[in-house]
Specification:
Layout lengths: L5 H8 L5 H8 L12 H14 L7 H14 L3
Helix pairs in contact: 1-3, 3-4
Amino acid sequence: MRYWDTSVLLKLFVKEDDSGFFSALIEEPGEVIHTSELSRLELLRGLWGKRLDGLIVPGAEKALMRRFETEIEMKR
């Protein structure tokens, strides 16, 4: 079991240099995301920051949050 903090969760949704490493970890058999309820707000803030920095296009933060919520609902 691993705890996935927001800085790592962000790497699963926005490509960074080490995103591939964390994407591989989440695909390991039996791996699920254990994180805080605060991660929803922190992730939204992180995505908003990426948008303001021009690293994602306007509107992408909303789509990525929907994807995150879907992943949570699927209990990944």
